[in-house]
Amino acid sequence: MTTWRLAVDADTCIGSGMCAGIAPALFTLVDGVAAPVVTQVPPDDAAVDAAESCPVEAITIRDTADDHLVAPEL
To answer: 58 with 12: CB under 8 angstroms?
Structure first.
């Protein structure tokens, strides 16, 4: 089964909350910085939407099988 790893670069995150608004089951704000609620998920369009909406591209999603970048698209 394919799984994705969610990560947020806390140094880059500006705490806009876009990710938590788009995918509240996957992202939350902790002390003004985004954080994944869970670190591994099955492929999920909401996760991609959240990563793509981050204004500073602080969110990355990688496939756990081969570590390739799923989102954001570069």
So the answer is: yes
Tokens of 73: 């698209």
In this predicted model, what pLDDT tens digit does every residue of 2-38 receive, in sequence order? 999 999 999 999 999 999 999 999 999 999 999 999 9
Domains in the chain (CATH in brackets) are 4-71 (3.30.70.20)
Grade residue 1 by pLDDT with cuts at 50, 70 and 90.
confident
20-50: burial string, b at 16+ Cβ within 10 Å, e else: bebbeebbeeeeebbbbeeeebeeeeebbeb
